[in-house]
Design brief:
- By secondary structure, this protein is mainly beta.
- It has one domain: Beta-galactosidase, Chain A, domain 5.
- Helices cover 10% and strands 41% of the residues.
- The chain is built from five helices and 24 strands.
- The strands form four sheets. The chain has a nine-stranded antiparallel sheet, with helices on both faces. Strands 7, 14, 16, 17, 20, 21, 22 and 24 form an eight-stranded mixed sheet that branches. A five-stranded antiparallel sheet has the order 2-3-4-5-6.
Amino acid sequence: MNNRWILSEYDITSPYQQPAPFLKATKQHGYEVTHTRLFGGRRDGVELLSVKNGDFSFTTIPSRGMGIHQAKHGDTRLGWQSPVEGPVHPQFVPLSDPSGLGWLDGMDELIVRCGLESNGAPEFDAETGRLKYGLHGRIANQPTEDVIIEVSPEGELCISGEVRETRFLVYNVMLETEIRTKPGENGFRIHDRIVNRAAQESTAQMLYHINLGVPILGEGASVVCPVSQLCPRDARAVEDVDTWSTYKGPTDGYAEQVYFMQLAADENGNTCTLLKNAAGDQGVSVQFNVKQLPCFVLWKNTAATSDGYVTGLEPATNFPNTRSFEEKNDRVLKLAPGATYEFDLALQFHPDAASVQAVEQKIAALTDGKEATVHTTPQAEWCG
């Protein structure tokens, strides 16, 4: 039988209050799992679950939609340094701010989900000017319910929970999530499932905002993608479309650049992208399935360090335009009553040149003999 631990059954503000059988089960397989609750400032009340798995560790945030706050391999950080300095409790994130940009008050994570009702740019009512959908949606600022940690007989650790995006008479959709890792694994795998809990058809969108910074990101770093088709989002991205895959060092006054893509995949729909450092001896790969997440977004924000030097590798169901534009272009999921839609995503750290090269070869094989289409201007059906 699995060793099973339900957070709500224990008062666990320190690792010493965790149940002894669970501690024994996790340590038996080389894990250290701790649960903490933060106090003071905008972090007050945030709950964290931290997993140490040999040289690799990561922290997830049940208080914030089970996003991944940070991950490390030894002393190498996989996340980024946000000026927001979170994790920020959702009570301090003004999602209804009239600007539509309140979501940015909490942006700090390595992985943050965008959705579910909408996941793109803010949208306003054409007649009244009132905000209809805020930037990137609400799911990242909803608490996770029924959080469970299990260790299988084979030693795989799984953190699961439910995140409910519900508003009476408006929307009733749930995210069921699992985060899994095996002993000695330099990463983790996410399995998410959207469930329509309403008695009528509903819709959904999902985007995984995966944010990486120094030391992997730096001058001369590059992203490797099996591009089938690519276009710049706007005039600003057009400026550097010829060098979309390489990065500058921190640049004061840099304005973000965004590129929309469709990626090649294997016969099962599996694909992979990679961010590697300038030396090519460290990298982070993101693996997903284009049948589930057919769109990919590259966000480059190589601003000054104090302003948030970061890049985003973002698999999605759609491009992050306004919801109405994406609906017009048939990039909004339709869910019958009780229907579900599933996503699989994996993030892995590659600690040396050999492992980075192996991933590059895997990506290259996906486009072998295929020529990418790189548009030099925004495309009307993609960029709204």
